[in-house]
């Protein structure tokens, strides 16, 4: 007999999203297994970011259903407010990173720690663990976040999402514009998060990262999911890569 723990952590069924007069998502269907990294791939404009924002309730799904941990959180007549979705254990790292440039690294993390009034209220063990993932954050603890490098800002944006335990991370193109060494640091951090049974839905254009991290993959095109399956199978099938993405992963190593 299957249990809730055997079910996907996140499930989208027939999700349609409109932004103003534009119909962006056209019946999106895919699942995110617990404790795994699911890659959401596709050409620019395919609907990946809209999918993440719809899951978070930032743009409501007009049709279909979104279930998280067995409970409805989105869909026609059922979309929860974004703060409530976050309280249920979902964190969103947007492509824009969402950090506060005038505040210090310390202040950014304190704002993200909902249960903490001062930095002393943050779990010390967890904070030290974050510093092992992203040592630069400890070094620049009191520096304004706006003065960090692009890679350090991305580290801070992820750290904000995990300063408290989360069941699911939605992360939008974390490697965009980063140097290869910083990308490798990100890959290591996400592997460590996966080791702690944190589930990740990751939008990414860097196929080295996708291949290194992905357990499963959903490929989008024109607001629909056109392929679902193991990431390893897509990574090994250049003909399928060309058909779905218009390029080869091997050309992006």
UniProtKB/TrEMBL annotation:
InterPro entries per the UniProt record, alphabetical: AAA+_ATPase, ABC_transporter-like_ATP-bd, ABC_transporter-like_CS, BCAA_Transport_ATP-bd_LivF, P-loop_NTPase
One GO MF term attached to the UniProt entry: ATP binding
Domain (ABC transporter) ranges: 10-247
Annotated Pfam families: ABC_tran (PF00005)
Keywords: Amino-acid transport, ATP-binding, Cell membrane, Membrane, Nucleotide-binding, Transport
The keyword Metal-binding belongs to this UniProt entry's keyword annotation: no
Gene3D superfamilies, A to Z: P-loop containing nucleotide triphosphate hydrolases (3.40.50.300)
Family designation: Belongs to the ABC transporter superfamily.
Protein name: ABC transporter ATP-binding protein
Organism name: Caldimonas aquatica
């Amino acid at each position: 007999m299957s249990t809730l723990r055997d079910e996907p952590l996140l499930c989208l069924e027939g999700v349609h999203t409109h932004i103003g007069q534009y119909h962006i998502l056209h019946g999106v269907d895919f699942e995110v297994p617990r404790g795994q990294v699911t890659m959401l791939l596709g050409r620019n404009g395919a609907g990946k970011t809209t999918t993440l924002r719809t899951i978070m309730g930032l743009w409501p799904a007009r049709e279909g259903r979104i279930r998280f941990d067995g409970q409805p959180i989105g869909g026609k007549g059922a979309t929860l407010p974004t703060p409530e979705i976050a309280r249920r254990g979902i964190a969103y790292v947007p492509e824009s990173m969402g950090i506060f440039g005038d505040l210090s690294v310390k202040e950014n993390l304190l704002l993200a720690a909902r249960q903490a009034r001062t930095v002393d209220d943050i779990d010390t063990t967890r904070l030290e663990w974050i510093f092992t993932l992203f040592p630069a954050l400890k070094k620049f603890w009191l520096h304004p976040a706006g003065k960090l490098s692009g890679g350090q800002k991305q580290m801070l944006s992820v750290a904000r999402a995990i300063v408290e335990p989360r069941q699911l991370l939605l992360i939008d193109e974390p490697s965009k514009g980063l140097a290869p060494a910083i990308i490798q640091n990100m890959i290591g951090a996400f592997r460590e998060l996966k080791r702690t049974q944190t589930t990740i839905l990751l939008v990414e254009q860097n196929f080295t990262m996708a291949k290194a991290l992905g357990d499963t993959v959903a490929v989008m095109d024109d607001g629909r999911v056109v392929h679902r399956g193991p990431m390893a199978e897509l990574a090994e099938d250049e003909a399928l890569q060309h058909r779905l993405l218009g390029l080869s992963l091997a050309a992006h190593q």
